[in-house]
Each structure stands twice: as structure tokens, then as C-alpha cells.
Design brief:
globular, 15 helices, pyridoxal phosphate, binds 4'-deoxy-4'-aminopyridoxal-5'-phosphate, four-stranded antiparallel β-sheet, alpha/beta, cysteine desulfurase activity, single chain
Length: about 425
């Protein structure tokens, strides 16, 4: 496909013109939060300036306009991942989406939503399988669900090169497995996981699949229904959209069977003082006033991504990842986490700088205008696995140029010498 012109794309992102510490900003922290193009910023602002109103049931013109924009946004964001509008539940982000799923299953496990939800109920001794490389958002909700239901949490291990051990996965996913939860792309390793294989292993035993698509949705073309995954989550702010909005995709039968998590206004059909009947999905999971402006901003963001094309974006980011790797491996004392030869990846590398704490390395880079993330990136067990408490993570997006990568590499090469190493 046609290579994209990242320098021209960067001009659509006002913040990328900022100077930081006297240097042009080189933003390599998109895995934490992406920057927003003018189109997404304007869409939310236009809504607030011209059509702002609470959606649904309003008797006035603005409410009708807002409802139309909000439901159009749902269709756009659902379409972005290959789904139908009714398969897309608005959330506040991936963390909320994963908690929604875990709490809904927890509710099914205590008999809520029965009989439709009975198939989702967990019993003591049932197994939830996740991986050893998850973000805490796709780990702790399952720990909590296991603790509440007596289910057992098991973890697919990773090889030293960061790829998942599929042989171990095939052994772990068995008759007792009810849920298999995994990330599409690790936010530390950048490797695209073999999700088709994981989904097939789960389907073989009839387990529910839950995918964290936070780090793939902005970088890879997704067709969630074609993948066959049951549930998947993503965050708007990582895909050029606003904070406070995200999506939970679900297969129709699965969403239909799930009891609600949050309850209250906007998710009911009839209510008495003692009882309530719930709307079908997606509204069943959308209690309370939704993030209407952010949803409209996110729709503009995914239209922007689609306008450029995910295949071109992926090709560009793969090229940046390769350029980063080629430079980093030449710098003495840099150890990449998850340097799997030939593994498909997004434009992200985490690394350890021998003898220098990640926070010091991050500050050194910041002084040169290079924004990276340091710490355990909400994946503490994965860092423990690599024998470090923290790493430096550089993550690129469609607006990063090869020049950005070269500035970054040049700065990284100065870290150890600066600390006398
Ligand atoms: N999963 C992954 C892989 C992530 O990278 C993140 C964000 N760092 C999350 C989940 C949580 O996303 P949010 O904080 O937007 O809910």
C-alpha cells in the first residue's frame, strides 16, 4: 500500500507543534494516550456548541439532534471494528469494559439474570485462563471474579522472547476452562499475539473469549465478528479520541445473556418500587448519562483513522518499529523486552538501560523533548518475569516520522554516557 506521509499527518495534530524543554516535541507515548487530530477535537466542540443535550426521550430539537449524532457515533465506532451498532456498548474505557464483563459474570454466578444468564455462571473449581503478560486491567478483575466465585485463575506463560507459550495454552485450556481472557497486543512487548489460535483453543472447550484490544484498535484493521471473539474492549483515548469513552464489543448472544453491571436510569423498560425489567443490549449496560460528546469525538477519530487506512498505518508503524529496533540494539547496555524475531508487532518497544533507573532515563529523554513512558506500565508481573521493576517504553503512532525515531535513538545513545557508564 501507499506509504503515508507522517509529517503531513502530524500537522493535523495541534499538540505536535509544541516545544518541550526548548526542543520540538517528539511524542513517543501513544500507548499510554494518543494525541488527537483537529477533526476529533472539532467534532466534540461542535457538538457542545451546537447540539449539546442529553440523548433519548428528549422532547426538544437539540435532544433529537444529539440522539442522532450519538447513535451515528455508535454505528461509526462499531463499524470501525467490523461490528453492528447494537454490538457496541459505550464504556468509559477498557478498564470499565473489562470490569463490566467480570462483574456481569459475577452477577450471573449468584443467579442474577437467570435463566438466560445461567450459562455464564461460574462455580467453584471452574477456571479462568488469562496470560502472564496482561495489563492489570485484564488481570485484577479476573482475580476479583475468581475470589468471589471460587473459580481458579490460571495464566498462559510467555517465552523469554515475549511470545505466548501456545503449547502451555493448549494444556491449560481444558474442560474446566470457562473464560479465556487475553490481550491482542501487549502494551509492554508490542507483539501481536496469536489470537486466532487462542480463540480456537477456547472454542474447542466452549469457553468465553475476552480480548483486550486497547493496543491493537488504533494500529491494526479489526473485524471482531470475523475473528469469532465473544467480547472485546478498547479505549477511545488510545485511538485518537477523547478521554472517558471506550467500547465493549460483544457477540449478540453473549451480550443478550449477560446480566447488567451498573444499574439505574436509561437501562430499564419498567420499574416498580421492588423490581425492574431491563432493556436489551447495548442499553442494558449503559446506565446513567453516557459520554455523549466524547463518543462523537471518538467517531470522528475513527473516521480519521479509516480515512488514512489501517493497513497503511500498520505498514508505517512496522517500519518505525524496525527502525527503533535496529537503532536500539546498536546502543551498548540496552536490553529490549520481548525481542521475538519475526513476530508481528506494533510500533512499540520497552527496554532496560543497564545501570540507569528507568525514571532517570525518562527524565534525560524529556530534557531533549522526547516523551516516553517509564515504570511497569501497569504490567508488574511481566516486569517481574524479566527481572526488572521498571522499563522505558517508546510507542509510536501514525504521526511519528522517521526523524522522530532518529532523534529518540540519538537521545537514548546519550543516556549511559551521561551517567558515566
Ligand atoms: N489494556 C491495555 C493493554 C492497556 O494498554 C491499557 C491502558 N494502558 C488498558 C488496558 C487500560 O485502558 P484504560 O486505562 O483506558 O481503561
Amino acid at each position: 500500500c501507499d506509504p503515508l506521509d507522517a509529517a503531513a499527518i502530524a500537522k493535523d495534530f495541534p499538540i505536535l507543534a509544541e516545544q518541550v524543554n526548548g526542543h520540538p516535541l517528539v511524542y513517543l507515548d501513544s500507548a499510554a494516550t494518543s494525541q488527537r487530530p483537529r477533526a476529533a477535537l472539532d467534532a466534540e466542540r461542535d457538538f457542545l456548541e451546537h447540539a449539546n443535550a442529553a440523548v433519548h426521550r428528549g422532547a426538544h430539537t437539540l435532544a433529537a439532534e444529539a440522539t442522532e449524532l450519538f447513535e451515528d457515533a455508535r454505528a461509526a465506532v462499531a463499524g470501525f471494528v467490523g461490528a453492528a451498532p447494537e454490538q457496541l456498548v459505550w464504556t468509559s474505557g477498557a478498564t470499565m469494559g473489562l470490569n463490566l464483563v467480570a462483574y456481569s459474570i459475577g452477577n450471573a454466578s449468584v443467579g442474577r439474570g437467570a435463566p438466560a444468564s445461567a450459562g455464564l455462571a461460574l462455580r467453584p473449581g471452574d477456571e479462568i485462563v488469562t496470560t502472564a503478560i496482561e495489563h492489570h486491567a485484564n488481570l485484577i478483575p479476573w482475580q476479583e471474579l475468581a475470589a468471589r466465585t471460587g473459580a481458579v485463575l490460571r495464566h498462559i506463560p510467555a517465552h523469554d522472547d515475549g511470545t505466548l507459550d501456545l503449547d502451555a495454552a493448549a494444556e491449560l485450556i481444558g474442560e474446566r476452562t470457562r473464560i479465556v481472557a487475553f490481550t491482542h497486543v501487549s502494551n509492554v512487548l508490542g507483539i501481536v499475539n496469536p489470537i486466532a489460535e487462542l480463540i480456537a483453543l477456547a472454542q474447542r472447550v466452549g469457553a468465553l473469549t475476552v480480548m483486550d484490544a486497547c493496543q491493537s484498535a488504533p494500529h491494526l484493521s479489526l473485524d471482531l465478528p470475523a475473528l469469532g471473539v465473544d467480547l472485546a474492549v478498547f479505549s477511545g483515548h488510545k485511538m485518537l479520541g477523547p478521554y472517558g469513552v471506550g467500547g465493549l464489543y460483544g457477540r449478540a448472544e453473549v451480550l443478550e445473556a449477560m446480566p447488567p453491571f451498573l444499574t439505574g436510569g436509561s437501562m430499564i423498560t419498567t420499574v416498580t418500587l421492588d423490581h425492574a425489567e431491563y432493556l436489551p443490549p447495548p442499553q442494558r449496560f449503559e446506565a446513567g448519562t453516557q459520554p455523549i460528546g466524547p463518543a462523537i469525538g471518538l467517531a470522528a477519530a475513527v473516521r480519521y483513522l479509516d480515512g488514512i487506512g489501517l493497513d497503511r498505518i500498520h505498514a508505517h508503524e512496522s517500519m518505525l518499529a524496525e527502525r527503533m529496533r535496529a537503532g536500539l540494539v546498536e546502543i551498548p547496555g540496552i536490553r529490549l523486552l520481548g525481542d521475538a524475531a519475526g513476530a508481528p508487532r506494533v510500533g512499540l518497544w520497552a527496554f532496560d538501560v543497564e545501570g540507569v533507573h528507568a525514571h532517570d532515563a525518562g527524565q534525560f529523554l524529556d530534557a531533549r523533548g522526547v516523551a516516553v513512558r517509564v515504570g511497569h506500565h501497569c504490567a508488574a508481573p511481566l516486569h517481574t518475569r524479566y527481572g526488572v521493576t521498571a522499563s522505558v517504553r517508546a510507542s509510536a503512532a501514525l504521526y511519528n516520522t522517521t526523524g522522530d525515531i532518529d532523534t529518540f535513538l540519538d537521545a537514548v545513545s546519550g543516556i549511559r554516557p551521561y551517567f558515566g557508564l
